[in-house]
Structure formats: structure tokens, C-alpha cells
Amino acid sequence: MSKPKIVVLGAGYAGMMTTKRLMQQLSTEEAEIVLVNKHNYHYQTTWLHEVAAGTIDPNRSRIMISDVINSNRVSIVEDTVEKIFPDQKKVQLKNGDIDYDYLVVGLGFEKATFGIPGMAEHALSIQSVDKSRYIRNHIEHQFARYHDGEGDKDELLTFVVGGSGFTGIEFVGELAEKIPQLCKKYDIDPNKPRIINVEAAPTILPGFDEELINYGKKSLEERGVEFKLGTMIKECKENAVVVGEDHEEIKAGTIVWTGGVQANAVIGESGFELTKGKVNVNSDLRAPGYEDVFILGDCAWVMNKETGRPYPPTAQIAIQEADICAANISALIRGGALKEFVFDNKGTVASLGGRHAMGTIFDGKKLYGLSAKVMKNVIDDRYLFLLGGPGLVLKKGKFKPF
Q1: Is 364 left (phi over 0), alpha (psi -120 to 50) or beta?
Q2: What phi and psi values does residue 204 have, to the nearest 5 degrees?
Q3: What's the pLDDT tens digit per position in 174-225?
Q4: Can you give the pLDDT at residue 345?
Q5: Cβ(102)–Cβ(292) below 8 Å
Q6: Is 175 exposed, middle or buried (0-12, 13-18, 19+ CB in 10 A)?
């Protein structure tokens, strides 16, 4: 009898940690493990806003898969997933097909534009290392154009960020740190650039309490960020956004959309039922109707039974999902009870750029400023340790508060 084949799609937080846990829990005699990813590297999604703003080098966010996944234990396939055929237990890749006994889907997210006209065509998005690097280069190009006197248009130095969730707020925080450096580099009046954050909800950072929200907003405003809250983006044009009920047009040289994500399009195209762009998975993280398919991370909604609402798809949750997924696959192979996913909230810290941050840890203890920034770095370094041990922390870790 051949040993079962486990195929993991996507090398994001969920896919990488599931693969790592499966390596630890199952011997080579018990299962064959295959990891499929379109690149030969894993990247820190939660660092992409820094790449996009230009406050860290793009390579800092990338980790070679072969550096942390033993290729003698796991077959690493560099290819693009085109479609899943769950009834046939097969995955169609760009360069061939692969069959499986157990499938883990962690294909990540795509930009969700909620039908806003022009958003898909004209807005930039922080989705990958390459797209974030493009934003970084685009921003600097706008400063160079202004410096070279291209019409002396102030909108070249206007930056509109749609969405005040984690990515949007952390990105404008990084912009608030980077833009003064670019002004100095290109000899531009530091009062010329504008950073405008537009959010349909009446507040920023849903999930934080009012005290933390007020602290974060004040910190950003003191460094020049403008907020338009309770204001919907009605349309996105090539060099402008139309906002609010009065249809105000804001001309901008850079428009970045962070207002929503949905599961990779492959999920819906493969026949899985979607709710608001993602799959409502069972409590054991399996896709409804399929005992051999697990869906994790940004592709899945996992319900919080206490609130009746899904958990927000954060890196912390994806890593915890990986633990449960690996344990459940091991149980299916060896025989045993499956575990339900219950989120263990260790706290949430949001970076606000430079030395600035705020959030809660463990029992709800609030942190502000430098202490929060240090904790943010500790959280990031902990993931690196879980993934690749002390060597990876020394190579990629964040040891300075800014």
C-alpha cells in the first residue's frame, strides 16, 4: 500500500507552518509531503507595507523556501496553481497536474474592490513583493518628476490610501516616515506632500478599543496624515479618486487600495462555495463537503462560536490554523480524533511607522510608542524562530525598534 500524499498549495504563513509541522509530526514512511508555490521564496506579508513605502529593502521580506524546508523531506514544486478538482483529488498546475490524498489550500489573497469603478484598473495594491517594490519605485519616481519640474503639479506628491485597516494604517505610518527623507533627497519643501487616508467606516483600525484608536490617529496626524473617515470612495480614476456624497475629486499621483481582500480566484473557480470572497470552513478547518481538503489563511473564514462572526484573517491566526491542520492530517493518517480550531489571542500590535506603534498583548495590557514597537519586532522575530530557528532570526530578524 502506497503512503498517503499531502499536497500544500501556497507558501504563505499557513502553508509554510503547516509544512513545517507535518515534517515534525510525520515520518517519511508515513506520508509524502509536497509544497507547491509559484516562487522559490516565502515572504513576510506583514512586512510588505514597509517594502511598498521604501523603509526596508525588498529582499529583507523574502525567505528562500529551501533555507527552512528540508528538500529531502518535502518535494518543493515551483509552479502556478490554475485549478483544483476536489472530486478527482487533483490539482492542475501551469506545467502539469498533481494528485493528492490530502490537500492544504493556502493560496493567499487578492484585491477585493467591492465593485468600485476603476479601482481594479487604476489603484496599486500591496499584494506581493513585486507589487510592493513597484509601489516603492513609483513613489520615488513621483518625487523625481516633481523635482525635474514636470508641470510643478502638486498632485504628484499627493498620496491617497484607501482603507484604514491594518495594512492601510501601517502603510501610511511608513509613508509618514519615508516622505520627509525623500523631500530632503530631492530638495522639496516638506510641506508639499500630502498623505490622505480614506475610509468608509467612521473609525480606523476596527478591533482596537477607542483609546488605542485615538492614540494611533493622533500619532499619524501629528506626522501629517490626513483622514477622511465615514467617506466612501465612489470612483478611482487614473490620477484621482472621487469620494463622499458630494463626489469630491482628489487628484493624486499615487493611489493605493488596501480596503479589502478576498481569496485567490482559484478557490471560486474550482467550485468551492464562497461567502464574501472566502470559504466558510468547518471547525476542523476542512472545506464543507470534503474530508480531505483543508483551507487556511486568507482563503478561509473560521467562525468564532462565541461571537458568531469569523476571526479576522491575520498572520497570528494563520500560524495557529497551521498547527491544527497538521495535527488533524496526522490524526486522519494515523487514526484519532480531529481537533477544532479555537483562536488563542496573544494580542495585536499595529506599527505606526518609525518608533511609533500601539496595541495589546496577552491579557489586554496596552502598549504605546517605543515599547509597542519593540513588542511588534518580538512578534515578528518569534515567527522567524518558529519557522527557521535562531539562524533565521539572526539573518532576517528585527533587533532595532525602527
Answers
A1: left
A2: -95, 165
A3: 999 999 999 999 999 999 999 999 999 999 998 899 999 999 999 999 999 9
A4: 85
A5: yes
A6: buried
Q: Which residues of 152-170 are buried (b: 16+ CB within 10 A; e: fewer)?
A: eeebbbbbbbbbbbbbbbb
**Cα 26–28–32 angle (5° rounding)?**
85
Q: Where do we find the cell 496624515?
A: 225
Identify the active-site residue in 50, 110, 155, 170: 170
pLDDT tens digits, one per residue of 94-120: 999 999 999 999 999 988 899 999 999
Looking at the chain, the domain(s) classified CATH 3.50.50.100 span 5-38+79-111+261-344, 114-258+345-402
Note the pLDDT tens digit of each residue in 219-244: 999 999 999 999 999 999 999 999 99
Measured in whole angstroms, the distance separating CA 317 from the mean position of its chain's CA atoms is 12
Give 305: exposed, middle or buried? Use CB within 10 Å, 0-12, 13-18, 19+. Answer: exposed
Encode burial over 108-137: b for 16+ CB neighbours within 10 A, e otherwise. bbbbbbeebebbeebbbbbbbbebbbebbe
- CA of residue 360 relative to chain centroid, distance: 20
Q: What is the pTM of this model?
A: 0.94
Please, what is the average pLDDT of the chain? 94
φ and ψ of 181, to 5 deg:
-65, -40
- The CATH label, of 3.40.50.720, 3.50.50.100, 3.40.50.2300, 3.40.50.80, for the domain at 114-258+345-402 is 3.50.50.100
Separation of alpha carbons 242 and 232, rounded Å: 9
Q: Which neighbouring-strand residues pair with 7?
A: 34, 103
Segment 361-372 shows an average pLDDT of 90
**Nearest-10 crossing angle of helices 315-334, 369-396:** 50
CA-based torsion, 141, 144, 150, 155: positive or negative:
positive
- Please state which CATH class domain 5-38+79-111+261-344 belongs to: alpha beta
The question of whether 170 is a catalytic residue gets the answer yes
Q: Which residues of 238-251 are buried (b: 16+ CB within 10 A; e: fewer)?
A: ebbbbbeeeeeebe
